[in-house]
Write a structure and sequence with these properties.
Blueprint (H helix, E strand, L loop, with lengths): L1 E3 L5 E2 L4 E2 L8 E4 L20 H4 L3 E8 L18 E10 L16 H5 L2 H17 L5 H12 L8 E2 L4 E2 L3
Antiparallel strand pairs: 1-4, 2-3, 5-6, 7-8
Helix pairs in contact: 3-4
Length: 168
Amino acid sequence: MFDYDWGPEFNDSDATGNPTNAPPPILHVIKMMVPRVDGDGNELGGVPTVQRDAPLGTYLGWNITSGPSDATYDGRPFHAGQVCNYVGGMVPFAVKAADKKPGDPRLSLEERYHTHTGYVAAVTAAANNAFSQGYLLAADRDVLIAQAKDSDVLCVNFNTVTKTCLDP
């Protein structure tokens, strides 16, 4: 990460004031430490969460901004194609193994959970784990499990009117 010198009228600690150095010179490069990740690319350790323990994809603490080669690029040059820190991203798992893009080593949802019931079981186990360790309130655990039951993750018979999965 770069440490910029925005000038004497700019307050680095809260990003206020007048940045008089434009473009700002780089004072030095700050060494970045990153966490270890599992086979899905999700961070290891920390507080147990349902997203970590029953993931639907790889969750990122960063994102990439669009650039001229992207269909959604709107022509603005500011940080085009560069890392956009502090705006998380997510790379979803393929639903079936046959849907995986070449080179993607991550298991598909179907390989991972097999069925909607398997996904709900994984969410239930993850929510109960966080609850039993004191990181999740019972009411929040129950909401997460209900959301998994009502989701369309690996649901064969999803009712679009009631937005519920009708699988057993």
